[in-house]
Amino acid sequence: MNQEVIRLTRALTAQEHTDIKAAIKSITAQIAPYTTVVDESQVKNLNKIGDGDKVLIADCLSEGDAAQELLPALFKMETIETSDKLHDQLYEIEDALFELYQHVRRNRMLAGSEASGMVSTFYNIMKTFATGKNKLAAAVAIYKRLQGYYMKRVETAKANKRKAEAQKQVDAVEQVKKETA
Question: Rounded distance, CA 90 to CA 34, Å?
């Protein structure tokens, strides 16, 4: 990777990083009184709202006063109005957060790509100086250490993969035992 293609040239300071995480925490705390925890199993059962639903909500709200005497005492039109307003507000916040998420994600990926590209260049430079005609002792030492780090990482990854596979088999056997019991 050529030095000119690097687009991200500085990292957050420790304080900037801390401040951004604190700001996110603050937003989470600010929104907490207006939200609740909804897990994936609950999401599947929620009514989906589309443009047609928004029109129907508006129409029902406009008919609310006329229908008030027909509704049970516990039924409050204000609840529909509040939920609809909160839906719209959260939709705008979600949209802004999604744009921020995409921006942060893409730049995280870019930063990783740039680091990886520069590491590849660094590794190849060390390899060239460690294996060429005019070997340099410092480059040989660095190149051997880099190979050692890489091999250790590969072996750890292989061991973790073997453990995960063995656990899958144990889980499958236990599942069969449960089903046949």
Answer: 9
Q: Which domain holds residue 162?
A: 136-181
Give the separation between CA 49 and CA 86, rounded to whole angstroms: 13
pLDDT tens digit string along 86-144? 999 999 999 999 999 999 999 999 999 999 999 989 999 999 999 988 899 999 999 99
In a domain, 18, yes or no: no
Residues 142 and 174 in one domain: yes
Residue 144 in any domain: the answer is yes
153 and 96 together in one domain:
no
Cβ–Cβ < 8 Å for 61, 81:
yes
Helix axes 77-131, 137-180, angle to 10 degrees: 140
Contacts of 146 (CB under 8 A, 6+ apart): 123, 126
